[in-house]
Write a structure and sequence with these properties.
Layout (H helix, E strand, L loop, with lengths): L15 H10 L4 E4 L4 E4 L11 E4 L8 H12 L1 H4 L3 E4 L6 H9 L2 E3 L2 E6 L12 E4 L3 H14 L5 H19 L3 E8 L2 E10 L3 E9 L8 H17 L3 E6 L5 H7 L3 E11 L9
Parallel strand pairs: 3-4, 10-11
Antiparallel strand pairs: 1-2, 2-3, 4-12, 5-12, 6-11, 6-12, 7-8, 8-9, 9-10
Helix pairs in contact: 5-6
Length: 277
């Protein structure tokens, strides 16, 4: 499905961080590719950041800022552009570029890809059971966990979480992904998904309840999902994408992941909420 240098016909997309985003979306997104940019749009999920994005092969100059912002709105629509992302390969631009983006309402938003071909053995908690999500009841339990773990302040928030989970469920039923939950006394306390391609798999949606953070549950989920992809599907590499400054990076490093590439970008300021500690 995807190699380091090619996805959806792009010959310049070398970023594992950006390319594996497309792996999560599968055939759910509308993707347009040119030599100058890649646009991604999921009309039924305008708030899905990786699904409403504009990708570029090189870092921007200050003169590019206004054009790139306008192009984002043109390609994904004004509603999705409020939650979308502009990202690029080539590393961190000069400070004046970020300043220009901030002047038009955008915040820096970097993504660090990490990869592993094998994982370090992890001691398992005897109190937690890791279970694949398969039945309708399993998906309902996972939805309830998402609703409890994420800030839901409106009907639109709940609708977004439901629709996003439907995407994940559809991908799983097609054999393009799998999801796992961590159960403590039959209660979901964590989850992790993995999207699979021909030689690569991308972890997604790693989340644990507040009371179970830093308890080893996250490591068990990452290990289980990764081993499933390596052993059951036969992929060669597992990819995870994290905020480079977020503590989850240390979790992935502890089980054998190493940094691969940094994709830089910006998102609308009003839509950006930094990860919780």
């Amino acid at each position: 499905m995807m190699s380091d240098q090619q996805h959806h016909g792009s010959v310049w997309l070398t970023s594992l961080a950006l390319g594996s985003d497309l792996l999560i979306l599968g055939d759910a997104a509308q993707v347009a590719v040119t030599a100058e940019w890649i646009s991604i749009h999921t009309p039924y999920l305008p708030r899905l950041r990786i699904g409403n994005a504009l990708l570029f092969p090189n870092q921007p100059t200050r003169d590019d800022v206004i054009e790139w912002v306008r192009h984002l709105e043109l390609k994904v629509g004004p509603t999705a552009a409020k939650f979308g992302r502009i990202a690029w390969q080539g590393g961190v631009p000069s400070d004046d570029v970020y300043a220009a983006f901030e002047q038009v309402g955008f915040e820096p938003y970097d993504s660090l890809s990490m990869q592993a071909t094998a994982l370090h053995p992890q001691q398992r908690s005897t109190d937690v059971v890791i279970k694949p999500v398969s039945s309708a009841a399993d998906w309902d339990s996972l939805l309830n966990f998402h609703l409890q773990a994420n800030p839901v302040t409106s009907t639109s928030d709940e609708d977004f979480l439901r629709t996003r989970l439907n995407l994940y469920r559809t991908q799983s039923e097609k054999g393009q992904a799998a999801w796992f939950t961590a159960l403590h006394h039959n209660r979901v306390v964590g989850c992790c998904g993995v999207a699979v391609g021909e030689q690569i798999a991308r972890l997604q949606g790693l989340e644990t309840s507040t009371s179970n953070r830093r308890s080893g549950v996250g490591r068990q989920l990452v290990t289980t999902a990764s081993q499933w992809a390596l052993n059951s599907v036969g992929v060669r590499r597992i990819v995870a994408v994290v905020d480079p400054d977020y503590h989850a990076r240390r979790l992935f490093e502890s089980v054998g992941f190493e940094p691969h590439d940094l994709a830089c970008g910006v998102v609308p300021t009003e839509s950006y909420f930094p990860p919780a500690d």
